[in-house]
From TrEMBL, chain A:
Keywords: Signal. Residues 1-34 form the signal peptide. This is Ribose transport system substrate-binding protein. CDD domains: PBP1_ABC_sugar_binding-like (cd19996).
From TrEMBL, chain B:
The keyword Chaperone does not apply. This is Autoinducer 2 import system permease protein LsrD. The keyword tRNA-binding does not apply. It is found in: Cell membrane. GO terms for cellular component: plasma membrane. It is a multi-pass membrane protein. Keywords: Cell inner membrane, Cell membrane, Membrane, Transmembrane, Transmembrane helix, Transport. Part of the ABC transporter complex LsrABCD involved in autoinducer 2 (AI-2) import. Probably responsible for the translocation of the substrate across the membrane. One of its GO terms (molecular function) is transmembrane transporter activity. Its main location: membrane. InterPro entries: ABC_transp_permease. Pfam families: BPD_transp_2.
Length: 354, 321
């Protein structure tokens, strides 16, 4: 009697165990099917991350690498990451292919990449994806969809937001100058294209002329200086890059002209001029923490979480209401650097839950 | 002593003398290859070997294209743009009516024609090659950008997988091309390229058609660079109008590293190929050693200086003994 009861209880326990195992199995099967692209579930923490940069020299890249290293340190503390390998292709897409191939050979668990060419990396990246490596691509994107996730802001919205603010400032009419980055560069094209519908909707805005310069202060200042001589009346400047805005403001200043409303980017130099000259300004940014977010996303995917194939990061906006909070942190950033908005894990989780 | 055996003996002696200066470079390259194999044993597998040689292959081709001209006393700054143009032509013609064969022919003809025209301008108008090819590089870049303004185009998957898949096809092609070069050097015209580079007047008096040798050298160089572009297109699965740019400087660096002189006639193709292999394997070795990017810039410079210095020091040491 006692024995049978025991057996019965044992059997029920076994059954319960089996049922639990079955639920667990079903559950894990459920998560497996929901797993992110490229992930096979055979890789275990702590992970090795490869950061395949195209070119490490510009300040924006250095700051981005800073957020990646900081995020890796955090994840190391949590026992999720053990190593970060960094490569710099020195602007050569062919070398970047070689680096990513080496990362595959070294069997890293995740690759975070800014592409040096929108097409050239497609094959090597899909090889990595086939090997179950989490590939997260941000800022400059590849063509192939065989990646775990792509992460970026929308350059079109950048242009539209800037044009909208300027139009509101000028009451929809006035003479403006448009400052663009280099011709033939997709980010510069895309920002300009985004501005066009807003400009079309406000026919009162008259574009005097447009400039195309490198994203550097000196050439922008030079271009604006000669435009100031030629145009006695300028009501606003639609600048689609931070260093361009700084160059423009300095040109106005040198010529003793009154400053006009101007758009820009989170370049420290522009934000400081904005405050110093009491400008009417507006700025947005390509946040450097896209790098940190990419590492976080890769690790989340490796941990079996589902992550969206495309993470669209909304553009943070800087205006008179919050510029002081940015400038208060200015000394933590290089003089020619970008003061990016604050970020934390909660923000990342929110972005990945889209 | 019969004439045949004396030429055989002479040939051997000449080859030995030409190899001597390269001993140091061979040592450095071998050391790097061994180090690479220790760090990443997977290189010894078919797949690993294939992928590594694929990444090296286009650089080897453009280095040949550059060395060919430098041996002839010339130089070209149009290598990179020609690679881009080759890639762009391949990616835009292979979906046309003539398909892949049509693409191959178009790329080869473009390379040969551009090279030959450059050669004619340099040889017959007697303009400096460096200026002509610099101007040519702008024109070729422009044409590539007109043909394909943004990266794109189409390369059939089977071609990509065939040339740059998990088989060492690229390496075998390189062996075939090197054998072809060896055979070409045995012809009067092939030898004439060297001779005209070393001593144009002497070569002319010995009956070498110096101008023709120059035009042929430029045409072959253009062909090799354009074919490198076709390979890059296959490797990446698409065309990119600016992907070749870094090849110009790298091809010169590899050739000089391999002991090819700027003044013509001095150096060997095998040395140049070794130079390109060193530039390529260096990238992978530095990766596996875990060098941070900043250290990679420095190390790269030191390795190149070292690779040039070691043969010199070895020579000095040998002379002192």
């Amino acid at each position: 009697m006692k024995k049978s009861a025991n057996t019965a209880s044992l059997r029920s326990r076994l059954l319960a165990g089996a049922a639990a195992a079955a639920t667990l199995l079903a559950f894990s099967a459920g998560t497996a099917s929901a797993a992110a692209n490229c992930i096979k579930g055979d890789r275990k923490a702590p992970y090795t991350i490869g950061w395949a940069n195209i070119y490490s020299v510009p300040t924006w890249m250095k700051q981005t690498e800073g957020t990646i290293s900081a995020e890796v340190e955090e994840l190391k503390k949590a026992g999720l990451v053990k190593d970060l390998m960094i490569t710099d292709a020195q602007g050569n897409a062919q070398t970047q292919i070689q680096h990513i191939q080496s990362m595959i050979d070294a069997n890293v668990d995740a690759i975070v990449v800014i592409a040096g060419s929108s097409n050239a990396l497609d094959r090597v990246i899909s090889d990595a994806c086939d090997k179950g490596i989490a590939v997260v691509n941000f800022d400059s994107l590849v063509n192939t969809d065989k990646v775990t996730a792509k992460i970026n802001t929308d350059s079109g919205e950048w242009g539209a937001g800037a044009a909208k603010w300027l139009s509101d400032q000028l009451g929809g009419k006035g003479k403006i100058i448009v400052m663009n980055g280099p011709a033939g560069i997709s980010v510069s094209d895309d920002r300009r294209k985004g501005a066009q519908p807003v400009l079309d909707a406000n026919p009162g805005l008259e574009i005097i002329t447009e400039t195309n310069t490198e994203y550097n202060v000196a050439p922008a200042q030079e271009a604006m200086t000669s435009l100031l001589f030629a145009n006695p009346e300028i009501d606003g400047v639609l600048s689609l890059g931070g260093a361009l805005s700084a160059g423009s403001v300095m040109a106005f200043d040198r010529q003793g002209r009154d400053q006009v409303p101007i758009t820009g980017e989170n370049a420290r130099q522009f934000l400081e001029l904005w405050k110093e000259k009491g400008l009417k300004g507006w700025a947005t940014m390509q946040p450097n923490w896209l790098g940190a977010l990419s590492v976080y996303t890769a690790v989340q995917a490796l941990e079996g979480k589902d992550v969206p194939a495309f993470v669209k990061v909304p553009l943070p906006v800087i205006d008179d209401s919050n510029i002081d909070s940015y400038l208060a942190r200015a000394d933590q950033f290089p003089a020619d650097g970008y003061i990016y908005s604050d970020y934390d894990q909660a923000l990342f989780d929110k972005l990945l839950a889209q | 002593m019969s004439a045949v055996s004396s030429t055989g003996w002479l040939y051997g002696a000449i080859q030995k003398r030409r190899n001597r200066g390269l001993g140091g470079l061979y040592l450095v390259v071998a050391a790097f290859l061994v180090l690479y194999a220790v760090l990443f044993p997977g290189i010894l597998s078919v797949g690993g070997f294939s992928k590594f040689t694929q990444n090296w292959f286009p650089l080897a081709l453009v280095t040949m294209a550059q060395a060919l001209l430098m041996l002839n006393g010339g130089i070209t700054l149009a290598i990179g743009p020609l690679v881009s143009l080759g890639a762009v032509i391949a990616a835009t013609t292979m979906e046309g009516v003539f398909g892949v064969p049509g693409g191959f022919v178009a790329v080869a003809l473009a390379g040969l024609a551009i090279g030959a025209v450059t050669g004619v301008i340099v040889a017959h108008l007697r303009l400096p090659a460096i200026i002509v090819t610099l101007a040519g590089s702008f024109i070729i870049t422009g044409v590539a950008l007109i043909l394909l303004p943004r990266p794109g185009g189409f390369i059939p998957d089977w071609l990509s997988n065939g040339l740059a898949g998990h088989t060492p096809v690229a390496f075998l092609l390189l062996v075939v091309i090197l054998l072809g070069w060896k055979a070409f050097l045995a012809t009067p015209l092939g030898l004439g390229i060297y001779a005209a580079g070393d001593n144009p007047v002497g070569a002319f008096r010995s009956g070498v058609p110096v101008e023709r040798a120059k035009v042929v050298a430029f045409a072959l160089s253009g062909l090799l660079a354009a074919l490198a572009g076709l390979f890059v297109a296959a490797q990446t699965g698409s065309g990119d109008p600016i992907i070749g740019t870094p090849f110009t400087l790298n091809s010169i660096a590899a050739a000089v590293l391999g002991g090819v002189g700027f003044l013509g006639g001095k150096g060997t193709m095998r040395g140049a190929i070794c130079g390109s292999l060193l530039l390529s394997v260096m990238i992978n070795v530095m990766f596996f050693l875990g060098f941070p990017p900043v250290a990679q810039y420095v190390a790269q410079g030191l390795i190149i200086v070292g690779a040039v210095a070691v043969p010199e020091l070895l020579g000095a040491w040998r002379a002192r003994r």
